[in-house]
Every structure is written in C-alpha cells, then in structure tokens.
Model the fold of this input.
Amino acid sequence: MNTSARVDSLPPTAPDPVLFQEIAGQEGRRIGVAILNSPDTLNGLSLPMCRLLDERLQAWESDARVVAVVLRGAGEKAFCAGGDLHALYQSMLDSPRDAWANLHARSFFETEYRLDYRIHRYAKPIVCWGGGIVMGGGVGLMLGASHRVVTPGTRFAMPEVTIGLFPDVAGTWMLSRLPRGIGEFLALTGAQLGAADCLQYGLADHYCAAEGFDALVAALAAQKWPADADQQAALLDAVLDGLQLDAPEPGPLRAHSAAIRRACNRADFAQACAAIGAWKHHPDPWLARAAATFLSGSPGAARLGFTLVRRARHLSLADVFRMEYIAALHCCAEPDFREGIRALLVDKDKKPRWHPASLEQASATWVKRFLAHPWPAGQDHPLADL
Done:
C-alpha cells in the first residue's frame, strides 16, 4: 500500500486543526481525505475546523479529478464528540443576554450549519468513518454523508439535554424521521446507540472493523472510477461491502422500541416525561441510565428538544437548519446552556442549577421564546439562501 494513504503515519500532534490529503488513484483520479485533528478534545468541532472543512469540500466538489471524499477523526477514541463548547462558553460570558449580540455564536452556528447542509447536498460520494464517539457536532457531519460507517466501538448520541442545549446540526430533522416516539426519547435522554441500533434505524449504512480504515483507503485508490456520480456511489458501496463485518447482535433501542414508542409517541410532554422517569430503576441498565440522564438534565432543554423534534417533522431540511439556528442563538442567551457547560467542563462539579428548575416551569408558553427570530426587523435570516 502507498504509505501516503496511511493515516497512522501522520504526526498525532500536527498543529493544523484539520489535516487534508489527496490519495492518488487510477487514471489520474484522486480521493480526498479530511481528518479532524484534535484528539485531545475528542476532535471537538471548532469554528476554524468548520471553515477549513467547508472551504476544502467546495474545492474538491469542483475538482473533476476528485471522485470521493472520506471524513474521519484523528486518534482511536472518537470521530467527533461534539462542538467546541469552551469557545461558546467564553462567548456567552463576554456577551450580554441578547441572542443577537453574541457574534461568535452567530458565526459558529452559521458556519457549522452551512457545512452540514453542504454535506447533505454534496455532489460526490462522502464516506464518514464513524468510529468511536460520534456525538453532537460529529452527528451533524456524519448525518448527511452518502456512506456512513460504524464500527464495533461506535458510541452515537445527541446528549445535549445534559448541557442545556437541544439536538441541533439537523438533529431534530433526523430524530423527527425515526419511528414516532423514538426520536422524542433520544432527544430527552441522550441515550447512546451502538453500531447495531445505528444500522437498524438508518443512522448508518456499513459496519466495518475499527482497524479497517487503511484497507478502505487502499481499496478506493485501487479502483477504476467512472465519471458518473451515481456509478461512483455504487462503486463505493461495493468497496464497503467487501469490508463489511457480520451483522452485530441487536441493540437495546431495538429491544425496547415497543415500550419506548408507547411511552413517548404522544403529544403531551408531561406524560412522555413521566413515562421516561419511571424507568429510573428499570432492570435493564441501558434504559435505567437513559432515564437517569433525563431526570438530571435541563428541564428547559427537554421541553425545547421535544418541541423542535415535533416541529421538524413538517419542515424541509433547510427550514430545520433555519429553525435550529434561531433556537441555538436563544440558548446562548438563556442561562441553562452556559450553566450546563460550567458544570460539566469548567468547574466540573456536575451540579448544574437549571432555570427553569422543573418540567412544570418549562411550559409550552415558556418555550415560545426560542422560536422567534432575534435579529432586527427587516433583516433576512442568515441562512435564507440554503
């Protein structure tokens, strides 16, 4: 194998936040490889990362020599564990409680959402190698890829309820299109899914060995690539099929799907919450852990996530990004997002003081503030052109 195709040969502490390679293929074709390069932060997605990725994806999309793109994270622990919460936290400390005044948040969410939308609409095949932790912003990158790979060590989740946020990066769009009740449950609990449940519920397409990435790149470089994009995608399917492991054992979400749907497929937020909370002492540790996470999470974030998943069911992908952008800016002005980051990552006391403090206080009237655009009258939505 050409040593230039070996990701492990790259220096693990290279200063660039994203590493880019172009692997030489047959007949002048090239494979673009983008590596999130912050293993110490589990490849947390920063604003510079988003800008670099978006710029390079645009260049590769317009380069006729590049026939496919591969995304992965540096290190063995994570593809991407989420967004750069430290930078967002500092921006919240520096800004008044005005959803439009936080310039960093405005730039970060607009850039990230544009990047995610580009991946959903990309004209060439994109492989996302979702090994290890895939959460939050990592889900946003993986969700729109044409070929999504999970491995035996994949841990996939949208755990924003634990930090006072909601499942963004089109997370509400994804969850709203799962079987009724399943999406609400995942939004409220942040429950982690393994490879089996990701495959079962259409969140991933292929199941490969964790150490199989080099074999994938080598196989892609060895192909004679057609010019047609649909044929390229079919060829990529065949390559990944050749690396496929035997199907994993069914996961816990599938095992409990009937009970979850009965509990959460209802319009009444309080009833869904009560049903989840009742599982705190369930004999299955996965379901009990999901209930405990929900009970300790932000009541306001739970109400917001439930509301947005329900609304996303009737919206296009572009409209979901626009809705989430508004809600995300409001989260940066409201206290819970800042408090959630403080408790988890700054002071690390894991004792957030939520406001509102109860599910009853997080009412349908209270949540409406997250749906109104925060910019001056007459101004267009920053994502109006999606």
User: Anything to note?
Assistant: Residues 103-120 form the longest helix (18 residues). Strands lie at 18-24, 30-36, 66-73, 78-80, 126-130, 133-135, 147-150, 155-157, 206-207. The first strand starts at residue 18 and ends at 24.
